[in-house]
Amino acid sequence: MASNDGIGKILGVALALCIVCSVIVSTAAVVLKPAQEANKSLDRKRNILQAAGMLEEGRSVDEQFAVVEERFVDLASGEFTDAVSSGYDQRAAAKDPSLSRDVPGDEDIAKVGRQASVAQVYLVRGEAGDYEKIILPVHGYGLWSTLYGFLALESDGNTVAGLGFYDHGETPGLGGEVDNPRWKALWPGKKVYRDGEVELSLTKGAVNPANANADWMVDGLSGATLTSRGVTNLIDFWLGDAGFAPFLENLKNGEA
User: Fold this and answer.
1) What string of DSSP letters covers 26-84?
2) pLDDT of 125-174, one tens digit each?
3) Which of 4, 41, 42, 178 has its CA 20 to 30 A from that of 196?
4) For residue 35, what pLDDT is reported?
5) Which residues partner with 162 through β-bridges?
6) What is residue 113's predicted lDDT score, i.e. its pLDDT?
7) Phi-psi region of 223 (alpha: psi -120 to 50; beta: other; left: phi over 0)
8) What is the rounded CA–CA span in Å between residue 57 and residue 100?
C-alpha cells in the first residue's frame, strides 16, 4: 500500500506540474504575442526598406517607412483592389484554395505551387505625387528551399533598385550567398524587360561589362548553379504575365 501511495503521489505531482507548466506557457504565449507581432512587422518593414536601398541605420524604421504606401493588387487584372485589408498575409492566402490558384506545371517555373490571387505591393511617392519606387514581393524555389524576398524597381517599372531575401534555407557559403552584400550590390541599375519580355537573369560567372546584354545580366552565385537558376526563374515568373507585369503596365499607363 505504501508503495502504491508513493506512485500515486508521484503521478499526482507530475500531473499538477504539467498543468502549471501548460498554464505558464499558454499565458506567456498570449502576453508575448503583441510584442512578437510588432517585431515581425518591424522586420518586414526593415527588409522592404533594405531591398529598396532606403534603409538608414540609426534612424527609426517606422519613421523611414512612413513614406511607403502599402497597396493590394489583383494579379489577374493588374489593378488595385480593396478586397483585402491591412493584416492580409499573402503567404497564408496562397495555401487557401478560395484565395489562390493552383499554378499549372508548365507555367510554374519558380515552383511556387499555389499563387495568392491578391499580392501586397509597396509604393514610395515623390514630392510630385508620382511613384519613385515600386517594391514587389517575390518567391521561388532554389536548391533546398523557397526563397522569399522583395524586388524593388525604380519609377519606370523596369530598372532594378535592389533585391533582398529575408527567408530561405540555402546552403551557407553557396546558395546562401544571396545574402552577401557584395552580390546584392550588383542588382541596382539592372534592367528587367526588353521588347516587353523579361530578360533579367543570372549568368554563369561574372558579367562582362562589354557584353551587349550586360544590363540584363547579374553575376551567378559561385558553386550554386541551382540556386542561381532558381533566382532567375522567380524573377521570370513574378515579373511575367502571371505575376506583376499587368500591374506594372497599368501603373505605367496610369490605369492601376
Assistant:
1) HHHHHHHHHHHHHHHHHHHHHHHHHHTT---TTS-HHHHHTTEEEEEEETTTTEE--SS
2) 887 778 899 999 999 999 889 999 999 999 999 999 999 999 988 877 66
3) 178
4) 63
5) 152
6) 96
7) left
8) 37
> What does the block give as the cell for 105?
506545371
The three three-digit cell numbers of residue 185, written as one number: 550590390
What is the layout of strands, in order, in the sheet containing 68-74?
79-80, 68-74, 118-125, 131-141, 146-154, 160-167
Of residues 113 and 126, more confidently modeled: 113
pLDDT at 19: 84
Cell 546584354 locates to: 213
Strands (E), the chain: 68-74, 79-80, 100-102, 114-116, 118-125, 131-141, 146-154, 160-167, 193-194, 197-198, 201-203, 217-219
- 236 and 198 Cβ atoms separated by less than 8 Å: yes
Q: How many CB atoms lie within 10 A of CB 244?
A: 26
Position 67 pLDDT exceeds 60: yes
Cβ atoms 75, 248 nearer than 8 A: no
Question: What's the rounded Cα separation, in Å, for the pair 245 and 253?
Answer: 12
Number of Cβ within 10 Å of residue 112's Cβ equals 23
Higher pLDDT, 4 or 66: 66
| Predicted pLDDT of residue 1 | 47
